[in-house]
Specification:
The complex is a heterodimer of chains A (67) and B (258). Chain A is mainly beta and 67 residues long. Helix content of chain A is 10%, strand content 36%. Chain B has one domain (8-237): Aldolase class I (TIM Barrel, Alpha-Beta Barrel), CATH 3.20.20.70. The chains are: A mainly beta (67), B alpha/beta (258).
Chain lengths: 67, 258
C-alpha cells in the first residue's frame, strides 16, 4: 500500500485518494485546515482533484491558541 | 472627555480597544473565551500548528470571528523561511492579510532575530501581507521596518513570557517619537501598571498573552489590563504634570490661623 508522511508520521493510503478524501477521512473540516504537500500549498479549491502519490510529505495545519 | 472617539487605525481598520491579546496558555477554551471578552480586545493572536486529531474543539469552531480579528503569528520560527512558510499557510486558512511576524533568535531568551525578521518582512510585504513585526526595542530596526512598509512596529517590553515590564522606556519613547505608524508594545508585560506605563509613554496599543493567562485569576487580570490600558491612555492624552524633587503645597499657603 502506498504511504505518505502525514505531519511527520507514516500514513498508508489507497491509490487514487485525493487530498479532499484524506482530509475527510481524518474527520477534519476542510475550512479549518490548510494543507501543504511537498512544501507547496494545496489550494482548498483543488483538494478533490489532487491525488496523493506514494512518498508525498503532507503538512495539515490549523490555528491553535498562541501569543 | 469620553474615550469613545479615541480610536486608532491599523491598516485601514478603525479600532477602539488598545489591547491585543493572545489565545495561548489558558486552561481551556472556556477560560480563553471569558478572558477575551473581559479584555475588550478586538484583535487576538493565534498560532499555526499541525492538526491534533485528538482535539475535537478546533479554535476556529468556537472563536467568534465576527467579534475578533484573528492575527496569526509565527511563534516558534527561527528563520525567515519558516516564518514565511507559516504565514502562507495561515493565509490559506482564509484569514485576512494581517499577520504578526516573529522570528526568534534564541530559545532561552526568545529574543527576536532582527536580521531574519527584516528578511521575512520584505518577502511578506512583496506578497501583499500586512505585516506587524515583533522586534527588539531598537529604534533603528523599527525605522527600517517602517521604511519597508510594515503596518506597525511591535517592539518588546521584555522577553516573551517574562513579565518583567518595560525594560527600556527610553528606547520605547525614541521609537514612538520617530514612528508614523502604530507602535504596539509586544511581550514582557507582567501586570496592569506595565501596560499603563506603555500607554503613558505614548504607545498606540499593547499586545500580551502570558500576563493574563498565567495570572492567578486570568479573567480578573484581563479586566485589569483593559482598565490599565484605558487609564494609561487617558493619562497620556491628559499630559502629566512636571515632576519635581521638592514639594509644592496643594492647599493655600495664605490665610493660616495664628
Amino acid at each position: 500500500m502506498p504511504t505518505l508522511v502525514l505531519n511527520g508520521e507514516p500514513h498508508p493510503f489507497t491509490p487514487g485518494t485525493t487530498v479532499g478524501a484524506l482530509v475527510a477521512s481524518l474527520g477534519l473540516d476542510p475550512r479549518q485546515v490548510a494543507v501543504e504537500r511537498n512544501r507547496e500549498i494545496v489550494p482548498r479549491a483543488t483538494y478533490d482533484q489532487t491525488e496523493l502519490v506514494d512518498g508525498d510529505r503532507l503538512e495539515v495545519v490549523t490555528f491553535v491558541g498562541g501569543g | 472627555m469620553s474615550d469613545t472617539h479615541d480610536t486608532w487605525t491599523l491598516a485601514g481598520r478603525t479600532l477602539t480597544s488598545r489591547l491585543i491579546i493572545g489565545t495561548g496558555k489558558y486552561k481551556d477554551a472556556d477560560e480563553t473565551r471569558a478572558c477575551l471578552a473581559a479584555s475588550g480586545a478586538e484583535i487576538v493572536t493565534v498560532a499555526l500548528r499541525r492538526v491534533d486529531l485528538k482535539v475535537k474543539d478546533n479554535l476556529l469552531s468556537w472563536i467568534d470571528r465576527g467579534r475578533y480579528t484573528l492575527l496569526p503569528n509565527t511563534a516558534g520560527c527561527y528563520t525567515a523561511d519558516e516564518a514565511v512558510r507559516t504565514l502562507r499557510l495561515a493565509r490559506e486558512l482564509g484569514i485576512a492579510e494581517l499577520v504578526k511576524l516573529e522570528v526568534i533568535g534564541d530559545p532561552r531568551t526568545l529574543l527576536p532575530d532582527n536580521e531574519e525578521t527584516l528578511k521575512a518582512a520584505k518577502i511578506l510585504l512583496d506578497e501583499g501581507f500586512v505585516v506587524l513585526p515583533y522586534c527588539t526595542d531598537d529604534p533603528i530596526v523599527c525605522r527600517k521596518l517602517e521604511a519597508m512598509g510594515c503596518a506597525a512596529v511591535m517592539p518588546l517590553a521584555a522577553p516573551i513570557g517574562s513579565g518583567l515590564g518595560i525594560r527600556n522606556p527610553h528606547n520605547i519613547r525614541l521609537i514612538i517619537e520617530q514612528a508614523k505608524i502604530p507602535v504596539i508594545v509586544d511581550a514582557g508585560v507582567g501586570t496592569a501598571s506595565d501596560a499603563a506605563i506603555a500607554m503613558e509613554l505614548g504607545c498606540t496599543a499593547v499586545l500580551m498573552n502570558t500576563a493574563v493567562a498565567h495570572a492567578q485569576v486570568p479573567v480578573l487580570m484581563a479586566e485589569a489590563m483593559r482598565d490599565g490600558i484605558v487609564a494609561g491612555r487617558k493619562a497620556f492624552r491628559a499630559g502629566r504634570m512636571p515632576a519635581r524633587v521638592v514639594g509644592s503645597a496643594s492647599s493655600p499657603t495664605t490665610g493660616m490661623i495664628e
